[in-house]
Specification:
171 residues; mainly alpha; 10 helices; 73% helix; elongated
């Protein structure tokens, strides 16, 4: 009964436009916490909170579009919202946007922009981005292949506990 009451209050706050409440209610809809799972409805709430500047909502909405989680896959929409979240400082979004830019899924390939967003996450110490950055130089994706630069970043990621980096650096 307390959970139901809390859910009702959260939904009321969400409907009044409170961004964190919108996000929290969307997460409840996404996971079925206190309410029935309704991913399509969750995506709508994430999008609303996104336009109120809530970066985690931007990321969640982008992720749902990227994965087709309860809504159809829409890579163009995913890229747009990953970019919005990345520009708000969301590290996972920076990395995902970089990956989409390199793959050209839904948007034009832009390896220089991909490198820029990956490096933004690297500069914040995000270990998955550090390893990916090392692989960009290892494979020469949009940059001149530079094994020395690759090894430098791979070692940093390995030292921070990234398992794939440990494996790659050891090999």
């Amino acid at each position: 009964e307390d959970k139901k009451k809390a859910t009702d209050f959260l939904k009321m706050a969400a409907e009044k436009g409170h961004p964190s409440s919108i996000y929290s209610y969307a997460m409840m809809l996404l996971s079925g916490d206190g309410v029935s799972v309704n991913k399509e409805e969750a995506s709508k709430y994430f999008k609303i909170a996104s336009h109120k500047g809530h970066d985690e909502s931007m990321y969640q909405y982008a992720l749902m579009n990227y994965q087709g989680d309860g809504i159809p896959v829409n890579m163009k929409e995913a890229a747009k919202y990953f970019l919005m979240a990345a520009n708000e400082g969301h590290l996972d979004a920076m990395l995902k946007y970089s990956i989409i830019l390199q793959s050209g899924d839904g948007i034009e390939i832009d390896n220089q922009e991909a490198l820029k967003y990956c490096k933004m996450a690297v500069d914040e110490g995000y270990n998955d981005a550090i390893f990916r950055y090392s692989m960009i130089f290892y494979k020469g994706i949009g940059v001149i292949c530079d094994k020395k630069e690759s090894a430098k970043y791979c070692k940093i990621a390995a030292d921070k506990g990234h398992v794939d980096a440990m494996f790659h650096y050891a090999g």
